Amino acid sequence: MLALRSLAFNICFYILTTVLAVVGLPTLISGGAVLRLARLWGRITLWLLRVVAGTRVEFRGLENIPEGPLLVAAKHQSALETLALCTVLPNFAYILKRELLLIPLIGWYLSRSGMVAIDRSKGTRAMSLMNAAAGEAIRQGRRLIIFPEGTRRPVGAAPAYKQGLSHLYVALNVPCLPVALNTGLFWSRNSLIRRPGTAIIAFLPAIPPGLPRQEFQALVQERLESASNALVDGGLQGLAASGHPVPSDESPAAAGARR
Prior knowledge:
The protein is an alpha/beta fold. Helices cover 46% and strands 14% of the residues. The protein has a single domain (2-257), classed as Glycerol-3-phosphate (1)-acyltransferase (3-Layer(aba) Sandwich), CATH 3.40.1130. A 7-stranded mixed sheet has the order 1-7-6-2-5-3-4, sandwiched between helices. α4 links the parallel β3 (92-97) and β4. The chain is globular and about 50 Å long.
C-alpha cells in the first residue's frame, strides 16, 4: 500500500508540474506572476501529498516571521521544504546554483522570478557576486531563502554548514529566520517513497542583525541543529508507532552524530 500510494502521488506530482510549467508560460511576462504560480504549485502539491500519500505538512512558529526583507536559513533534508516554504513566505527568492537556470523551461521560470543564482565557476568572485545579487533582492523587499549546508543532507547526518550564510548575514544587515524541520523522514532525498504522517516545518525566533559573523554562525547552527534533531526524534517515534519503516539513510551512526 505504501508503495502504491507513493507511486500515485509521484505520477500526480509530475503531471501537475508539467501542466503548470506549460500552461503557466504566459506568467513569464512578470516576475510577480511567476511567484504566484510557484505558490499555487506548492499549495496543490501539499494538497496532493496529504490526500494521495497521507503526508501532512504542519507549519509551526508562523508568528515568528518578521515583516519586510529577511534572510531565511532553512535546514535542508528534502525537496519538500523547497516547495512548501514558498507557500507561506510571500515575495520569496531562493539562493540556488546557476546550473539550475539551464534546465529547459524550469530555468526560464527561475530566471524570470529573480532567484539569486551562484556561479561556482567564478571561484572567489562567486561570494561577492552572490552578495551583490542578494543585496538587490533585499532592496526589493524579498524573503531570501538559503540552505546553509548547500545541498540536501541525510536525516541525522553531522552538520556541514558553509560560510555563505554568515557572509550574507553581515552584508545584508537584516534579521535571519532559522527554519528547523524533519521533512526527510517523509520525503526522503534519494527515494520515491512518501511516508504517511506529519512532517513539521518550524520557524524559530528570528536572529536580529548586528552580531559578529562567527558568533552568528555558531548561534544559527546550534538553533537549527537542536530544533531539527528534536523534530526528527519525534517523527521517528511517530513512524515507529504507525508501523512504517525508518528511512534507509537514518542509521544508528548518523543518529548518534546528532547527539
